[in-house]
User: Fold this.
Amino acid sequence: MKTKIKKSMFIVSVMTLFTTALKAQEPTVAELKVKTSAVCETCKETIEKALAFEKGVKKSNLNIDSKIVTVTYNPQKTTPEKIRLAISNAGYDADEVKANPKAFKKLPNCCKKE
Ligand SMILES: [Cu+2]
Assistant:
């Protein structure tokens, strides 16, 4: 009986060690590229600011020529879907996610794509 308890204790501690090791290996940094509908410097500012307030986002940089925003984020805290939604809620298209119409209406005229 005593050895049985010892054995199960051993198994539990091995499993704990194993899951701890697995957790440590999960990446905390990932990069995502999202095609947006940005057209000018103000768009760039609006999108980068919106992403700066988004949980799990470390940094973002929008290239106006390509309209692609590169986002560095923590995949344990956020997802590409949430990041696209944040861009949509700022008034811009994000890949297949269309801009939130209410947010789009509030954009300055120069930022409204046709
Ligand atoms: Cu703009």
